[in-house]
Structures are given as structure tokens and as C-alpha cells.
Hints:
The structure is a single chain. It contains 15 helices and 14 strands. The strands form three sheets. Strands 6-5-4-3-7-8-9 form a seven-stranded mixed β-sheet, sandwiched between helices. It has a five-stranded antiparallel β-sheet with strand order 12-11-10-13-14. 39% of the residues lie in helices and 20% in strands. It has helices spanning 2-10, 36-46, 72-83, 110-121, 136-144, 162-170, 187-200, 216-225, 239-249, 254-263, 272-275, 278-290, 313-319, 324-336, 396-412; strands spanning 15-20, 27-31, 63-68, 90-96, 100-103, 132-133, 152-155, 174-177, 204-205, 230-236, 339-348, 351-360, 372-379, 387-392. The site of NADP nicotinamide-adenine-dinucleotide phosphate (NAP) has 25 residues, from helix 3 and helix 15.
Amino acid sequence: SARVFSALAAGGVNVIAIAQGSSELNISFVVEGGQTAEAARRVHAAFQLSKIGGGRSPEAPRTDVVLLGFGRVGRALADQLAARNGGSRVRVVAALDRSGYVFDPRGLSRQRLLRLAQGKDQGALLAALGGRKAGAAEALAFIASHAVSRPTLVDVTAEETADLLHLALGQGFDLVLANKKPLAGSGQSYQALLAAAAAAGRRIRYEATVGAGLPIIDTHLKLVESGDRVLRIDGCVSGTLGYVLSSVSEGKPFSGAVGEAVDKGYAEPDPREDLSGRDAARKGLILARLLGYAGSPPAAEDLVPPALRRVPLPDFLRRISSLDEEWRSRVARAAARGHVLRYVVSATSRGVRAHLAEVPADSPIGALRGTRNLVSFTTRRYRAEPLVITGPGAGAQVTAAGILNDIQYLAAT
Ligand SMILES: NC(=O)c1ccc[n+]([C@@H]2O[C@H](COP(=O)([O-])OP(=O)(O)OC[C@H]3O[C@@H](n4cnc5c(N)ncnc54)[C@H](OP(=O)(O)O)[C@@H]3O)[C@@H](O)[C@H]2O)c1
């Protein structure tokens, strides 16, 4: 019994009641409902039962990945994880969508994941592809009640998932996020998530939230770890806005550039989501919070004039060409000064700005084309010449690769 209770104490699990018979072979105890999964895992680990089905613990424990979301990025990630399964100690045990979940505690094979992805490509729901119908909270509770090993929840939705993430932390999951929303709400909700992770002894990684697969958050961590101090982070972090603004700088009408961004799948079906600057501002906020900013989310400069913000989408698309002339003259005025227009976010410990800026055409930001992102770090060491990271800032494959790095980091440490 000493082994059981020291394992529980080490995991911060509070024991409410104990009943022990005359035999050493059985013991019953009561813990809070929310701590049962963690308690089971701690006891299994103490008695080397953490390997599913019992028996000795493997030398290096497995990391069991649960995908919260099985859309474009979730499917690309599942394939990248499954492709490297030989010898890897990371495997996908479950995938969730809005309808329900598919779970196999022994790991979902690459063939199974491929079939699920094909089914989703054709518009089917996981609940109808051999899965179970359930809400995400119910699915997580069911998965956590199994002896999953080092469970890691990957949030690849685009929803407000903070409540689910709190639940998952309580059930012993580490978190990897591509979804910005849980990190870009009020200062209070952001701090609450970090505090919940710390209290549960869990970790949160979120490289893919800014710059997709580019190593932005990782670079910040490495700069800080090496004793540097990051003073500000500036950049172009919206592939859609980058595409639209570099196209208008090259002479394309604004309406045509926006239409192309939608057709090529860079923009949301309603491009005002991107043109509002809200998504770029969320990324700026995540960066500012890395620098210690504790305030509320910033207001972004909206590229859609107020009169067109609330009209139905077809009306907006019909009337967008009325903006072309204004954009043409803005671009011409900037060009006369040797400048181009770019949507820039600037993050410091004091705040965030997300706005349309005129930058020299021959500067690194001015030279950006298409959907490429660029992020520059001004630090104590990189002061006169900032450290710059640039490259593709969107796309399911590169985003999945960024997530994979986070998963590997958690699995290895
Ligand atoms: N695509 C990129 O290039 C890129 C780059 C960087 C970051 N990201 C971020 O990555 C995330 C995913 O992007 P995506 O392009 O893969 O989006 P997506 O194709 O729309 O996929 C979203 C997935 O989340 C699922 N989902 C939504 N609400 C859910 C819930 N309550 N419970 C369980 N599952 C739920 C959806 O289920 P259904 O299938 O049932 O609808 C869908 O499978 C987003 O936050 C995005 O901002 C994307």
C-alpha cells in the first residue's frame, strides 16, 4: 500500500477514502472523479502495468496521440505519424471529429488511418466510419479511462476549446496546439490554461499556431534559453493577407487578388475573416504573450470598410470591386516613395499592433511574395540586425510537420 499511496501523492492525486482487507493483494480507495485517469496511470506505472494489457513497462514509454480534429491538418499529421511508425514510440490511438471518435488502445494502423482519411475526404463522419458517436468531452473521458501511455492531445480544430483542454489536462494529457483560439482569448483565460497545466504537471506546445511549420516559438525559446532577451517580434504572419497585398503591389486589382486567394484555398470561404486582420492579430498576441504581455487581445486594423463588414457574403463579393480604385491609388502613392503595402504585426511585452504598413520595397518584408511568412526577432544580441525566419506559412503538410516536432519533443523529454 505504501507504493500505491506514494505513487498517488507524487501525482498530486488526493485520496479521499481507503479500504484495505486483511490480504495485501487488494486495496480500494476513492479519489475525485476528475483524477481517476491520473490515479490509474500512476498506479499502473508504479507496478509497471503502464504497458497496455499489463506486463513489464517497455524501456522507453510510448506516447499515445489523440487527434482532436481530423480535418486537413489532422489527416496530414496522422499520415506523417503513421509513416514513421517503425521504431517510433509515438502512435495515434484516437481521432475525433464533430460526430464522434475512433479509438484503438493498441494504436490505429496506417491503413486504418488512411481509410478514415479517405472517408473524411468524401464527406463521411468518423462516427459512420467504424467510430462511436460522442461529444469530445465524453470521448476524452473514455480514452483516458484506458491505460494509455503518456497521452498527448493534439488540438487541430479551429474552435474555442479551452474547456476541453482543461478537462484533458486534468485527465493527464500533455497538449499540442495548432489551434490559436485557446491561446488568444482574454489574459485571464490564457493564464488559467498555463496554470492548469502547471498544476497538473503537464506541458503545452504550440509551434504551429504561428508560421505553420516555421520554427518561430522554438527560436524564441532557444534565444531565451541561451541567455538572450527578446525585445520585440515583428512580421507578416498571414499567408492570405501577404498574397493579396503582394498581388495588389504588382498591379492586380484588389477584388481580383482576393478572389484568387479564395480560389486557391488560401483564404477562408468568407475572405473577410482574413481581411479583418483578426487571425494575424491572434498570432501577434501569442507572440506578445511569449514576451510577457499580460493584457487583453488587440484590435486589428480591418481592411474591409465598415459598410461591407456585415452584408451577406454574395453582396460583399459583388461589391468588392468598388474598393479597387482606392487600393490602386494607395499602392501608387506608396510606390512613388519606393514603398509597398504589407500587413504587419508587432509584438512587445507592452502590447501588440496588427496593421497595414508601408515598408521599403527592398526591405525583407517588402520583398515577400505570395503566401510566405516572415518573422523577425529584435533581441539584445540581434539588435542592429534582427534575426529573421521566413518561408511558407501555411499548408497542411508543413503545419503537420510543425506539430510533429512538438510531439517528438514531448515524447523525448
Ligand atoms: N491549414 C493550414 O495551413 C494551417 C496552418 C496553421 C495552423 N492551422 C490551424 O490548424 C487548425 C486546423 O486547421 P484545418 O485546416 O485542418 O481545419 P479543418 O480542415 O476545418 O479541420 C478542423 C477539424 O476539427 C474538427 N472539429 C471541430 N470542432 C470539433 C469538436 N468540437 N470536436 C471534435 N472535432 C472538432 C472538425 O470536424 P469535422 O470534420 O466533423 O468538421 C475537423 O475535422 C486550425 O486551428 C487552423 O487555424 C492551419
